[in-house]
Amino acid sequence: MMCTTCGCGGSEVKTEGHDHYEGNRRHRHGDESQPAHVHAPGMDGRRMVRIEQDILAKNQRHADANRRYLAERGIFALNLVSSPGSGKTTLLVRTVEALQHRLPVAVIEGDQQTGRDAERIRATGVTALQINTGKGCHLDAHMVGHALEQLQPAAGGVLFIENVGNLVCPAAFDLGESHKVVVLSVTEGEDKPLKYPDMFHAADLMLLNKVDLLPYLEFDVDVCIDYARRINPKLSILQVSALRGDGMTAWLDWIERGAGLASAAIR
């Protein structure tokens, strides 16, 4: 995984209301003592492996802490991952609009630049916190841990984490979520699961979005599903259109079942 060896963009991360990452100063947090930024070019293989193991082990410690925090509060956390342009933010807006009067809902938004996605979520009335990753192409568990401290999501609710648009690196980073949900749109081609297998292997649910466009495209849904299940036979798949509403009831039911189980676990 290229991100586990390059440590991309760590010094440029900005979380709203929190300047922990700004500048190039070393940041100490708990057991951290090394700057995150390392480079792969010119490095021998064994050292690259050690660095990758260290980065993922550090991330896993933060992810485990996030998972404990969420479990103690009965919060059902979903990490939404996709390539850019899948319609992930539109899907999320429609989702929080439908859920916010049934369950406590909060959102962590990940993007390289701008706060546009968080603004779209807040316009619905739902609380959202933006993390800008700078040159980084994924969220990590440390970033999400800080966001949780600030966001303080309500117990018994749902937390959506919209990851940076990228079907490669987010697959390697556990954020402490309950599930990774991969969003694939019918405008992207049926073979995305074969091209980016790690992401589809890591996900528990695939949302095939923009199905309202199928009459205008040469996209074979059955072939796409077959490719996805070759990578991950246990992958659940729902076909949705965030724009027209197709499949949204099944998606919302899936979320509410998960939220109910998470909440029941702390009673």
TrEMBL record:
Region (Disordered): 14-41
SUPFAM superfamilies (UniProt xref): P-loop containing nucleoside triphosphate hydrolases (SSF52540)
Iron among keywords: no
Biased composition (Basic and acidic residues): 14-34
GO molecular function terms attached to this record: GTP binding; GTPase activity; nickel cation binding; zinc ion binding
GO biological process: protein maturation
InterPro entries noted in UniProt: CobW/HypB/UreG_nucleotide-bd, Hyd_mat_HypB, P-loop_NTPase
Domain CobW/HypB/UreG nucleotide-binding residues, every copy: 79-238
Keywords attached to this entry: GTP-binding, Hydrolase, Metal-binding, Nickel, Nucleotide-binding, Zinc
Family in the record: Belongs to the SIMIBI class G3E GTPase family. HypB/HupM subfamily.
Protein name stated in the entry: Hydrogenase maturation factor HypB
Upper taxonomic lineage: Bacteria, Pseudomonadati, Pseudomonadota, Acidithiobacillia, Acidithiobacillales
